[in-house]
Amino acid sequence: MKQFKHLIKPYMVWATVLILAPLALIALYAFTEEGNSVLTLSFTFDNFAKFAEATYINVILKSFKLGIITTVICLGLGYPLAYIIAKFPEKTQNTLILMVTIPMWINLLLRTYAWMNILSDNGIVNQILAFFHISPVSMMYTDFSVILGLICNFMPFMIIPIHTSLSKMDKSLIEAANDLGADPFQTFWRVTWPLSIPGVLNGIMMVFLMSVSTFVIPKLLGGGQYMLIGNLIESQFISVGDWNFGSAISLILAVIILISMSLMKKIDKQEDRD
Q1: Contact at 8 Å (CB) between 174 and 187?
Q2: Which bin fits 35, alpha (ψ -120 to 50), beta or left (φ > 0)?
Q3: Among 10, 51, 58, 184, whose CB has the most other CB atoms within 10 angstroms?
Q4: pTM, full prediction
Q5: CA 263, 81, 70 angle in degrees (round to 5)?
Q6: Which CATH number fits domain 55-273: 2.40.110.10, 1.10.3720.10, 3.40.50.720, 2.60.120.260?
Q7: Tens of pLDDT along the chain (274 residues)?
Q8: Cα separations (Å) of 120 from 65, 73, 113?
């Protein structure tokens, strides 16, 4: 292993410059007051106390609400799709997974603009409705448009981990369950579902955390009416110019992410023990 240690050094330099240094600056801004110079820093917790105001509590509750709805729908739609893909031969599975990942090759901003054209009052959906003499439906700047954008952009992050768990599953266990007289539902519930739990937890964690922290989708599909955690952080850095409060919110979000990840890992370990 010693002969490979020198290969780690470039990565350590990269991680220090692009990851650790920005995190240190965010922590420094979060615990200091606005307008302090580097030589006259005064530490404070006022930036964190400010987040306890009702306005910002509503922001985090709204973020969690949309994140949970998006995650539940992605799980409900993504698990059956991943299950169906895992039933095909390996070469066909690779092709189907490629089709799932192809939308991710397109920039998130472009995908969101495409949904704006589809859901707008003069968009494709309403043009189709008008062709059949159906009254147009206002879909933009609603919970529906934001959640739809979140689902379509983050669905692959639910499908791929679940498919990975299902494809690695020992098929002989299913054959053994069938030989013991288990019906398809019992086989799924007692064999397939428990073995796919790691992929389900990874998918839930990724979709939920990205849904909560994103700011492009709510800003464009919500028409600026949706202030989620990601939008709040962006506004503090870009519009308001309060880097101290924005850094404090970023740290709070990071803590929430770490707690969520630790809970998922505990649940995963508990499932392995059972």
Answers
A1: yes
A2: left
A3: 51
A4: 0.82
A5: 45
A6: 1.10.3720.10
A7: 556 666 677 777 777 777 788 888 888 888 887 665 554 567 777 778 887 777 788 888 888 888 999 999 999 999 999 999 998 888 899 999 999 998 888 888 888 888 888 888 888 888 888 888 888 888 888 888 899 999 999 999 999 999 999 988 878 888 788 777 878 888 888 888 888 888 998 899 889 988 888 888 888 888 766 778 888 888 888 878 788 888 888 888 888 888 877 877 776 666 555 5
A8: 24, 23, 10
Place of tokens 């969690």: 64
For residue 204, with 0-12 CB atoms within 10 Å meaning exposed, 13-18 middle and 19 or more buried, which class applies?
Answer: buried
Distance CA 145, CA 137 (A): 12
Amino acid letter, residue 43: F
User: Which tokens belong to 126?
Assistant: 């309403």
Type of residue numbered 202: N
